[in-house]
Design brief:
Alpha-Beta Plaits, 41% strand, binds iron/sulfur cluster, 279 residues, mainly beta, 14% helix, 6 helices
Length: 279
């Protein structure tokens, strides 16, 4: 049986909020029963985009994460409220519009905060993956259709085919756990890992000059971890390091000759090793 799967790419999302606007356009003021009642005009966001910063000036990076209901295979909301949750054969998880009415407790059943309370209608609500449109023959929900950079996409395939795609494209859940979300992310290292950054200079006659093409190697206990080459400005970045991964050795070489070695501690934030002079 083919199921719907959602892929988010953190390398493509620019935080334009088109997906959110499309969702609001589709659901505010429109009852799509029996799928869902209309979304509240203010306060509810069935899809949301958050901004994440890494590093400090001058080497900073901003990335965005867009998230919605994960349409979990092993859904905690379904376990907590089996009568109020509909798990369709195509993988889409819906709230039963009648049984969600007046049931504030359902909101707490989603560990990701993706079930919302509609004060006007006194009902619990969430992303339906535009099931009303898919059932009419649409290939994708409004948020995906509206994304100008294809940071969001949907794939309809069997779970086995999606498992193969997940392995091939290194897709990951947005958070760890055993709920088996159908929303997976690509390039999530942009928000959940850190990088070491710095710059290499040489000094002659009291003048510092940026050192391009220097080879920066990160290792631990003699084992190679990653490397980078300094750019025209002498700057480098060693990316995709797990947060709180501890102590490493950083070595700078030029034309195969080692010029500098120091230890670097990787904690919660991106370590800045500053400007290293290799006279
Ligand atoms: S993300 Fe939350 S609301 Fe969606 S299926 Fe999983 S537990 Fe339920
Ligand atoms: S529309 Fe696409 S690029 Fe824009 S915020 Fe949403 S996911 Fe990101």
């Amino acid at each position: 049986m083919e199921k719907m799967h959602i892929i988010f790419d953190a390398d493509k999302c620019v935080g334009c909020f088109n997906c959110q606007l499309a969702c609001q356009d589709e659901f505010i003021g429109n009852d799509w029963l029996p799928y869902t009642e209309s979304q509240e005009k203010h306060g509810e966001k069935w899809i949301k985009t958050t901004r994440h910063e890494r590093g400090r000036a001058p080497i900073t990076e901003v990335a965005f994460v867009t998230e919605m209901c994960r349409h979990c295979q092993n859904a905690p909301c379904e376990k907590a409220f089996p009568d109020a949750v509909i798990h369709r054969d195509d993988g889409i998880v819906l709230l039963n519009a009648q049984k969600a009415k007046g049931n504030r407790e359902i909101v707490k059943a989603c560990p990701y905060g993706m079930i919302h309370w509609n004060e006007e209608r006194q009902t619990a609500q969430k992303c339906t993956l535009c099931a009303h449109l898919l059932d009419e023959g649409w290939n994708e929900p409004r948020c995906v259709q509206a994304c100008p950079l294809r940071a969001l996409s949907v794939v309809k395939c069997t779970d086995e085919e999606f498992a193969a795609l997940t392995a091939k494209q290194h897709l990951k859940p947005l958070e760890p756990g055993s709920n088996q979300p159908r929303l997976l992310g690509r390039n999530l290292y942009k928000v959940n890992t850190v990088y070491i950054y710095g710059a290499i200079v040489t000094r002659a006659d009291g003048v510092e000059r940026a050192m391009g093409d220097a080879n920066i190697v990160l290792s631990r206990s003699g084992e190679f971890i990653t490397s980078a080459i300094t750019d025209f400005f002498g700057e480098f970045k060693l990316d995709r390091l797990p947060k709180n991964s501890g102590e490493f050795e950083l070595t700078v070489s030029v034309n195969g000759v080692e010029k500098h070695c120091q230890s670097v501690f990787v904690g919660e934030e991106c370590p800045d090793v500053g400007v290293i002079c290799i006279d």
